[in-house]
Amino acid sequence: LGCEGAGVMQRLLLALALLLACSGAQGQNTGGHFRFGTIFWKRVESEPNSNTVEITIETAWRRSYSSNYFTAAQMPDHTLMQINGKESPVLDLGDGKMMYLEKVRITAWSQAEDWFLGEQVFRHTYDRPNNAGQPWMVSFKGCCRMSELRNNGNQAWEMKMGIDMLKASASPRVVALPVVYFSKPAPGLPTKMMFNLRTAMGYDGVIWTAPVPGTNAPANYDGLPSTVTIMSPGNVTVDVAMEGLLHVTAYAHIAAHPEIMVPVDVIVNVSAAANTDPQFDEATRMLFPREHVARPGFPFSADIGGFMGQNTDPSNYVGFTVGPLPEGAHLSTVRGKGTSPSDVARMTLHWTPCVSQIGKSVVCFDVVNNLGMASTQRCLAINVVADAAPAVSVSLGGVALGPMGPASPLLIGVSYVFQVTATDSNAGDSLMIKATKRDGSMCGAGDQCTPPTSMMGMPWSWMGPSMNMSTAVNLTFAPKHNHGGYVMEHCFTASDACGAACGDFSCPGVVHNTVACVRIRVDRCQFVVRQGQELQEIAAIYNSDWLQLWSLNHQLSNPDVNLMPGNVVNVGHLYAVQPFDKPRDVAQRFGMSDESFATLNADVRVGDMSTEQCQSITECSAMRWCILPSSCDGASGSIYQGAYASQPWFAAEKDVLSTPPLPTK
């Protein structure tokens, strides 16, 4: 951090002990102490039905000034201080109440740039959510500004803010460094330069305006309209043809409710160009101005790099000025001196946000050298979003499956590989896939969470093109000879991680569980031949004989023909179940034992053989059983072989010819 300071309730830790080289920035040591200010508000969440708000004032002041009130600025261990001035800074709440900066907490400082930054949070309860249909107009004012300013030097400041709790629960928060630096361009080069103001804690729809004297600025306010232009989305263009100091005040409004506005007041320092001007390296410039996404409980990091310009003095070096950090964030030590583009000084921002920090945060940086010069600030926008639940899918042969499973039932004798895939938009998440019950709970000893004899393999993970984290696991299922008629829903749960320890070292996020279920069914009466199998062997598997199987397979012209791997052989006959059929009655009729019946019909348990399976034609319409009849043991006899056999009419029926119908006229 060179000679700069940053952090929330923390002191700066500098990799380079450069304090002896840090002199105050030129032209900032006299006059008023006020350097920077912004105000923002939010409704107190613990009191949503009240009209209580928290108003935060962030201000920067001249660090080199010494008095009974400003000693804390020179002793950063003292984190609370009282601030006054020629006109003591006052917060006018708009309802006749006033508050003062008596407990300002130091959050950042810069010795090279001669400022310290502090904040104080005020809690106030209004009588009504707004002021008779208009916002409560809060103003922050005092005296004085720096005397060296090109505009409003040594004058009082006044910034205003609108609060309306019926239209919003919070305002935007403007984040910036107190001083924004520019170098005066060489003759002949464009003199219009731009920097960006960013908002955190809220609204994407923010519009920006310049102050209006007599309305939201003092009547004698000079905004240098010919020099400074303020436009949405927070672009501030400054004509830097003239060296010196000026201040810029801007207002951020909620686009849907422009009357709800918050101010920011910064100093712009235009200095003579020098070959040694500090600058960000190319990798760092790529971080801006895009928005970065972080998630509660997962580490976020960003490398900030900078170096001197055309530096010929090896004793020169750079560090970084850093604005307030989000709570829990920290900075690494500075690596390298930044003497040239080949010797970039780098510092890493580390942050594991908590759930309470969901929303936008902004951290601003500039590169500062030991000569007191700095680059134009850049601000890192970090949007902390809730960690999303993973998505989970099941596929077979590359085809995604719905809840009903494969379009065709599985066949006995074929090995199938189902792939269960979980995908998470959080690249830092870790995923786990398990077979579970439908509600995601773990399976017990008696639960059949995967098909019988199936196996789940080891998971593997990869990063997708959209920086999504994916994990997959294969389920291999080769239906056995006794799996015909198997049908069951199987569910798989993808769980993500809670995240790393945060704050109180407990789980900072939420473990999400996403369940996907798919129905797996195995065809009855079908058997796929494997290498070397014969009809006699297959018959023996089902306690039958080759004669029965040959009679069921008319496609086989000879029972001794060699079967080819992959041939499908019928091992039974499909029986349409009738109302009130009991499996044991049907099995006995066809000469089958309970065990043989259950072998061909995995969905009928031996213990249910005496139970009616359906009781109406509608209920039975889709129900089938696989039957392998035995003419020796079954009820093969009939009245045509008994009482009717000797009847004359039956003898005549044996060779009755069918008479074709006569043509109609």
Uncertain residue ranges: 1-29
Q: Characterize the main sheet.
A: 9 strands, mixed
- Rg on CA atoms, Å: 40 Å
What is the end-to-end distance? 108 Å
Strand content: 35-45%
Helix content: under 10%
- What is the residue-mean pLDDT, rounded to a whole number? 86
Return the structural class: mainly beta
* Total number of strands: 39
Overall shape: it is elongated
Assembly annotation: single chain
- What is the helix tally? 8
Short description:
By secondary structure, this protein is mostly beta strands.
Keywords:
nine-stranded mixed sheet, 665 residues, mainly beta, 8 helices, six-stranded antiparallel sheet
Topology of helices and strands:
Blueprint: E1 34-43, E2 52-62, H1 71-74, E3 80-81, E4 87-92, E5 98-100, E6 104-110, E7 115-125, E8 136-143, E9 157-163, E10 173-175, E11 179-184, E12 192-196, E13 198-200, E14 206-209, E15 228-231, E16 235-239, E17 244-254, E18 257-272, E19 279-280, H2 282-285, E20 291-294, E21 300-307, E22 318-322, E23 330-331, E24 345-351, E25 359-369, E26 378-384, E27 391-396, E28 399-400, E29 410-412, E30 416-424, E31 432-436, E32 455-456, E33 460-463, E34 469-477, E35 487-495, E36 513-528, H3 535-541, H4 546-552, E37 568-570, E38 573-576, H5 583-589, H6 594-600, H7 617-620, E39 624-627, H8 648-653
Parallel strand pairs: 11-18, 20-26, 29-36
Antiparallel strand pairs: 1-2, 1-18, 2-7, 3-6, 4-5, 4-8, 6-7, 8-9, 10-13, 12-16, 14-17, 15-16, 17-18, 19-21, 21-24, 22-25, 23-24, 25-26, 27-28, 27-30, 30-34, 31-35, 32-34, 33-34, 35-36, 36-37, 38-39
Helix pairs in contact: 3-4
